[in-house]
Amino acid sequence: MATTSNQLPEAGFLRIWQIVGNKKTNTPALIPISRTSFLNGVKSGRYPKPVKLGERTTAWKIEDIRALIASLGGAA
């Protein structure tokens, strides 16, 4: 079952593997780019900044990822 932005909850957080996918766990990508490309886009300001949820936990707001998908021309 493929996950799309329409199946995301209204609010919450996504970890990076939920955004760019994970082949090891068969998690489909919401944004089909590599982890490195996504993180470089975050660093350059092209993609939304993450939120630190803990010392070793970083996530992105679902609302920010929905807006990104919409701006890239996807179904949001």
Descriptive key words:
alpha+beta, 76 residues, globular, 3 helices, 3 strands
Based on Cα principal axes, name the global outline: globular
Termini separation: 18 Å
Fraction of residues in β-strands: 5-15%
Q: How much helicity do the residues have? A: 25-40%
Determine the mean pLDDT. Answer: 89
Largest sheet: 3 strands, antiparallel
Low-confidence stretches: none
Pattern of helices and strands: EHHEEH
**C-alpha Rg (nearest Å):** 12 Å
Q: Secondary-structure blueprint of this entry?
A:
Elements: E1 13-14, H1 16-20, H2 35-44, E2 51-54, E3 57-61, H3 62-71
Antiparallel strand pairs: 1-3, 2-3
Task: Describe this entry's structure for a reader.
- With about 80 residues, this protein is α+β, with helices and mostly antiparallel strands.
- The chain is about 35% helix and about 15% strand.
- The chain has three helices and three strands.
- It has helices at about 15-20, 35-45, 60-70; strands spanning about 15, 50-55, 55-60.
- A three-stranded antiparallel beta sheet has the order 1-3-2.
- Strand 2 and strand 3 (about 55-60) form a beta hairpin.
- The longest helix has 10 residues, at about 35-45.
- The chain starts with 12 loop residues before the first strand and ends in a 5-residue tail after the last helix.
- The mean pLDDT is about 90.
What is the gist of this entry?
The protein is of the alpha+beta class and 76 residues long. The protein contains three helices and three strands. It has helices at 16-20, 35-44, 62-71, and strands at residues 13-14, 51-54, 57-61.
